[in-house]
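Researcher: Re-running this chain for the archive, since the previous output was lost when a drive failed. Same request as before.
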Amino acid sequence: MASDGGARGRTQVAVAGVALSDCGRVDDATPYALHAQAARRALADAGLDRRAVDGFASAGLGTLAPVEVAEYLGLRPTWVDSTSVGGSTWEVMAAHAADAIAAGHARAVLLVYGSTARADVKAGRRTGNLSFGTGGPLQFEAPYGHTLIAKYAMAARRHMIEHGTTIEQLAQVAVQARANAALNPQAMFRDPITVDDVLSGPMIADPFTRLHCCIRSDGGAAVLLVAEELARDCRTAPVWVLGTGEHVSHAAMSEWPDFTVSPAAVSGRLAFERAGVRPEEIDFAEIYDAFTYMTLVTLEDLGFCGKGEGGAFVERGRLLVRGGQLPVNTDGGGLSAQHPGMRGLFLLVEAVRQLRGEAGERQVRSPAGRLPRLGVASGTGGWFCSSGTVVLGR
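Model: Regenerated structure tokens:
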């Protein structure tokens, strides 16, 4: 399924290559090495030489990202992007790259990420705390102990109060993510869990116990976007970028108008409108899930269910690859598969693999056995501060 971009005189954009580096527990690699490993694998997936790459996007590593990473990879791009908006960075970068390719500013843009977040903590190179500092608007919240997870926990509690969402419903998100991870040989945690397992774990930030929170892993990912004419030279069938949207909401919690509405409400609407599709046409969704509440509220804001209906939507196994009405985070997500600091690029990799029919045991299929035609990847950054949504199709 291709977009109507060509009919409007606008170059269509395809994802031609995707790959992950080694993921999970990687104690003997640097973040640069994971970037390189993922990049090499994505280029091999597409069947293109690195000399074809004239655009590059990266964030989160080096003093002059993406300059340092491009140098490490031996690239000299003429189009670059270092947008950094947390977990939604990669969906926003994909949108920028698609626009650049459509405008003729680049023909092949490589998006790469890599992190040794788990190994660094284990080796004592950093602590488990993630601090965004106390400057700017954060100076008014830091004295009250507002950690990143506390902000998400506050938002979840607000949803529970306003809409009657239960802790058991939130736990179902983690249970179903683990069930999907069980089908993924690359997932870091695959053993089944129950709602009781989630509820009985140690409290991290009320109402989140440990299994409501993403895992900490190492790993990298890469995605190669190309112009339609270059897609014909690639070894893979193209997956088309049909529509994108991005939105920033707030930095200070006091400036967030409604804790029960995420910025995906805007980025998702824009992406679906630009793709010319409706949420009910989507076959699966890859959603940023640093915490269970993120999945639930993003499902609402993307239009898969009404506001306040997310709890009821998730509790009946709808997110499962096997038998689910809308398979979500088909690889196990950040709750079970991998979460090396920022996971947005992993969402795009998994979405493309699903559309190509390359997901193995976790492959999404209709009851009639057909492969999916439409998927969505939606990343969230900060504490619901930003969102990027990408609709993909074949």
